[in-house]
Design a protein that fits this description.
The protein is an all-alpha fold. It has one domain. It is 87% helix and 0% strand. The chain has two helices and no strands. Helix 1 runs antiparallel to helix 2. The protein is elongated and about 65 Å long. The model has no long low-confidence stretch (mean pLDDT 91).
Length: 69
């Protein structure tokens, strides 16, 4: 559904202002390539926080504490 809305929005932009639509079509892969390192950095930071949390709660888990859902 997201892809369909994106395509319809791009077609609308193409009808209203075709140079801007073509510019968006050409710059989209460049923006994606620039955002890739930021996504990887976010994954790394999230994994680091998960590791720190697991280390902090390890003594409680060893003593038998279980979280109730």
């Amino acid at each position: 559904m997201n892809a369909l809305l994106l395509f319809v929005g791009w077609c609308l932009l193409l009808a209203l202002c075709w140079p801007l639509a073509l510019l968006a079509l050409l710059l989209a892969p460049l923006v994606w390539l620039i955002s890739l390192p930021l996504r990887l950095l976010g994954i790394g930071v999230g994994a680091t926080f998960a590791l720190i949390g697991a280390l902090l709660f390890l003594p409680a888990r060893l003593l038998g504490y279980r979280r109730t859902a």
